[in-house]
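Lab manual, section 2.4: Encoding a predicted structure.

Procedure: take the sequence of the chain (84 residues), apply the prediction step described in section 2.3, and record the output as structure tokens. A sample record is shown.
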Amino acid sequence: MQKINFNLLKYKNPTSGDFEHLHAFVGKSAYDTAREGGFAGTEAEFAALLANVAALEARIAALEASAITTATVSDDGEGNVILG
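Recorded output:
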């Protein structure tokens, strides 16, 4: 993956005439933040995980849709819980 020198990404402020950083590009990358949060994989592995987010969200939605949303809980008189 090619690294970009974000210090080069500047624009000329039309009011002051000064060159300023594009603030959207200043700071840590998502990968750097994930590493600080404990992610131990490579940058390529992190990119692969991000690429699969939509598929994971779709799978979670499918599981939630098929999950039991209500249940009746009763006792059989012998201390056993019955879900129905």
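Check your result against the sample. The first strand starts at residue 10 and ends at 12.
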